[in-house]
């Protein structure tokens, strides 16, 4: 492939990725690779395929999850318990660059294609093995879903309200793991250019959540206190939260350092609060959270959202509107910046967001969402020799 052709097709043009994947973590990783030009062959079980296909049928007969995670891929149904299909799969691997898997614990080993086997037979292959808890330890046999990992990893305990833990609405364990896998693949491709060797990259979802919990872990380890969830706010910062406005909306604003606190106090007409010793530093403001929320809330209740945001912008105080998912779908910031594109589906084009991280000049491939097994015949013809 010439340099011009590769530039036109994306920075990962010429890279072949095999997805032994389901649900969110592996499919989101491989979808981002597809966005940047990689060929992604999604290997699915005959008859039912990726479990997210059946979650609902809201996108022209396809599920919201599957449509989000799988455009730009080929779907090939292969029975990896069949010797003939395993032969085709191995032929794919001879030309592949990357395999990303998040099958159930031990599934690859039972199929005879565990990470050690893949590394031995295909030394240039980059193998990403996503699991819930990693290998070793008392939980390595357990299935793992986003809620389970977030519960095990403590993130639900600092979300919600005291006595009422909650799972964050975004599947942060799945998405965070996908992004770690995606970045590790890119690093491994770069390393292979220098060394000629592939890599085996095990990624545990629990490790992802534990990394994201770093600030809370430090508080427990060094201060001995558990963070207390505060709903629309942060256990570590005050004042910082959501406040009803006079026109029935909700403003989200607050401070992240002592200088901002002084500006906020002046903004709400209470400059004397900035000189109050109990409020001078963030750690003591956290202890006085309820008092400060009452003061800020009273000021917001007397002003419209537009007034609050204009005043906060002028004062250099971060602020936002509490939006619904419908508001996000119609958000002018996304629309005016051209963040939407169309991708194909078996029932016609649908809107999809562009990937968040794309360099200027990189083309983004807007491929289609494949029907189950849509590319099986062509994959068999290509790799069945």
Protein traits:
alpha/beta, 6-stranded parallel sheet, 16% strand, 385 residues
Structure characterization notes:
This protein is an alpha/beta fold and 385 residues long. The protein is built from 17 helices and 14 strands. It has a 6-stranded parallel beta sheet with strand order 3-2-1-4-5-8, sandwiched between helices. The longest helix has 24 residues.
Major sheet size, sense and barrel closure: 6 strands, parallel
In DSSP terms, counting alpha (H) and pi (I) runs of 4 or more, how many helices?
17
Helix content percent band:
40-55%
Q: Please give the number of β-strands.
A: 14
Shape: elongated
Strand content: 15-25%
- Which stretches are low in confidence, meaning pLDDT under 50 for 5 or more residues running? none
Strand order of the largest sheet: 3-2-1-4-5-8
Q: What is Rg? A: 25 Å
Cα-to-Cα separation, first versus last residue: 24 Å
What class, by secondary structure content?
alpha/beta
User: Would you tell me the overall average pLDDT?
Assistant: 95
Provide a concise account of the structure shown.
Helix content is 41%, strand content 16%.
């Amino acid at each position: 492939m010439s340099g011009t052709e590769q530039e036109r097709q994306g920075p990962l043009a010429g890279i072949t990725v095999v997805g032994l994947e389901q649900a969110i973590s592996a499919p989101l990783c491989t979808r981002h690779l597809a966005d940047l030009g990689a060929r992604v062959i999604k290997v699915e079980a005959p008859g039912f395929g990726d479990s997210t296909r059946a979650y609902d049928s809201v996108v022209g007969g396809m599920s919201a999850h599957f449509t989000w995670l799988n455009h730009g891929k080929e779907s090939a149904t292969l029975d990896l318990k069949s010797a003939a299909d395993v032969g085709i799969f191995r032929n794919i691997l001879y030309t592949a660059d990357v395999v990303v898997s998040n099958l159930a614990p031990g599934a690859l080993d039972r199929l005879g294609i565990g990470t050690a086997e893949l590394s031995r037979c295909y030394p240039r292959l980059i193998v990403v093995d996503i699991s819930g808890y990693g290998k070793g330890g008392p939980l390595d046999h357990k299935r793992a879903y986003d809620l389970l990992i977030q519960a095990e990893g403590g993130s639900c305990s600092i979300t919600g309200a005291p006595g009422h833990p909650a799972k964050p609405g975004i599947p942060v364990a799945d998405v965070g793991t996908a992004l770690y896998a995606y970045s590790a693949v890119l690093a491994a491709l770069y390393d292979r250019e220098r060394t000629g060797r592939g890599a085996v990259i095990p990624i545990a979802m629990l490790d992802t959540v534990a990394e994201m919990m770093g600030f809370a872990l430090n508080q427990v380890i060094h201060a001995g206190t558990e963070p207390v969830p505060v709903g629309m706010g942060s256990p570590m910062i005050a004042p910082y939260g959501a406040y009803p406005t006079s026109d029935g909306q909700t403003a989200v604003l607050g401070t992240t350092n002592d200088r901002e606190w002084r500006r906020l106090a002046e903004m709400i007409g209470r400059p004397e609060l900035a000189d109050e010793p109990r409020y001078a530093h963030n750690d003591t403001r956290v202890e006085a959270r309820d008092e400060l929320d009452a003061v800020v809330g009273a000021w917001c209740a007397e002003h419209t959202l537009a007034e609050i945001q204009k005043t906060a912008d002028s004062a250099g105080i971060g602020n936002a509107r509490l939006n619904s998912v419908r508001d996000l779908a119609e958000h002018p910031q996304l629309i005016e910046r051209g963040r939407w594109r169309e991708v194909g589906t078996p029932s016609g084009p649908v809107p999809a967001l562009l990937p968040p991280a794309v360099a200027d000049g990189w083309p983004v491939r807007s491929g289609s969402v494949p029907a189950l097994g849509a590319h099986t015949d062509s994959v068999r013809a290509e790799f069945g020799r």
